[in-house]
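ok new one. same drill as before - structure tokens go in, u give me an amino acid for every spot. 357 of them this time. try not to just spam alanines like last time pls lmao
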């Protein structure tokens, strides 16, 4: 009898320990600790499963958080404890009021595929530890107060498809290794203090669809290689110090819808190959040193809605062929050396609502 009592006590002890271990093997304690810092609306209500709290998705066992979306809640406070959610695949803390530095401990979230910390007030530098997030596909730190250079440790993020660090205070140059991110579709670093030349090897990114580097201090030519990617749709390089001409290879990108290269120091003529860019809707090359005639091949870009060539050195007449652009809404050509009459065909464009000569 004494032995049976001892065995029962032993089993109860094992059971209690097992239950304790189970209680620790889920994310609820961590979430409660996070809530003490952030006070998330609807979190911690008695009798509710933490997997049903706002912005949370759990795994199939309802034990670990795999998705945390606390965007647009105007939250503030310390977010370091979020790094304890080891099963996280998706973390979105965008559009809040977080400040201070980005926790280096976020580099421990080895399962993370999506990280969005944009539209906050994070300062300091981009933590080098984030280079450990080998599964990351989406990475957005835009619209913060981050300074310093883009750390070389991020070159390990070989699965990146979307890389956005725009509207910060970043300096230094665009790292050469960005061109080695072969899965990259989107790269934005606009509105920073980035210097140097655009790396020529960006053209080796065969999947690149959007490249936006406007409002920096970039110098040198527009790399011809950029137009080698037949998938490029949006190219925005306005307000830099770029020199040289517009590469003839631009005609290779038939899917380009948006070319914005104004406010630079570009020279030469517009390639006639621009007529091959059949998907073009916006073309802005104002405030450069371009010359020659306005090429009539623009008329082959049937989807064109805006053509801005103001403040250059264009000569000759306005091509009457531009009147074939039935979708044209804005034609801006002031401060050039054009002569002759305005073609009647252009005045007949039904959708034209801005004509600035």
């Amino acid at each position: 009898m004494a032995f049976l009592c001892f065995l029962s006590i032993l089993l109860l002890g094992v059971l209690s320990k097992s239950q304790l271990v189970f209680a620790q093997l889920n994310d609820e304690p961590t979430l409660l600790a996070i809530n003490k810092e952030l006070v998330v609306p609807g979190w911690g209500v008695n009798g509710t499963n933490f997997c049903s709290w706002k912005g949370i998705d759990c795994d199939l066992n309802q034990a670990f958080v795999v998705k945390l979306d606390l965007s647009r809640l105007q939250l503030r406070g310390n977010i370091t404890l979020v790094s304890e959610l080891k099963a996280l695949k998706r973390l979105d803390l965008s559009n809040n009021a977080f400040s201070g530095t980005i926790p280096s401990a976020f580099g421990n979230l080895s399962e993370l595929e999506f990280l969005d910390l944009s539209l906050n007030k994070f300062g300091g530098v981009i933590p080098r530890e984030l280079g450990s997030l080998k599964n990351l596909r989406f990475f957005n730190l835009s619209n913060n107060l981050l300074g310093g250079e883009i750390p070389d440790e991020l070159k390990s993020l070989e699965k990146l498809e979307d890389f956005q660090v725009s509207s910060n205070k970043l300096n230094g140059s665009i790292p050469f290794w960005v061109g080695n991110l072969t899965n990259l579709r989107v790269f934005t670093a606009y509105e920073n203090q980035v210097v140097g030349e655009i790396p020529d090897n960006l053209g080796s990114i065969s999947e690149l669809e959007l490249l936006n580097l406007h409002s920096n201090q970039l110098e040198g030519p527009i790399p011809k290689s950029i137009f080698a990617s037949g998938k490029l749709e949006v190219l925005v390089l306005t307000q830099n110090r770029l020199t040289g001409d517009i590469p003839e290879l631009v005609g290779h990108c038939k899917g380009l819808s948006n070319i914005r290269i104004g406010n630079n120091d570009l020279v030469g003529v517009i390639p006639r190959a621009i007529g091959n860019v059949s998907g073009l809707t916006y073309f802005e090359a104002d405030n450069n040193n371009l010359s020659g005639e306005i090429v009539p091949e623009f008329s082959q870009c049937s989807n064109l809605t805006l053509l801005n060539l103001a403040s250059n050195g264009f000569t000759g007449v306005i091509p009457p062929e531009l009147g074939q652009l039935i979708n044209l809404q804005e034609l801006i050509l002031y401060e050039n050396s054009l002569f002759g009459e305005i073609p009647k065909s252009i005045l007949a464009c039904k959708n034209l609502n801005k004509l600035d000569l």
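The chain has three helices and 23 strands. and btw Helices lie at 2-24, 28-38, 344-347.
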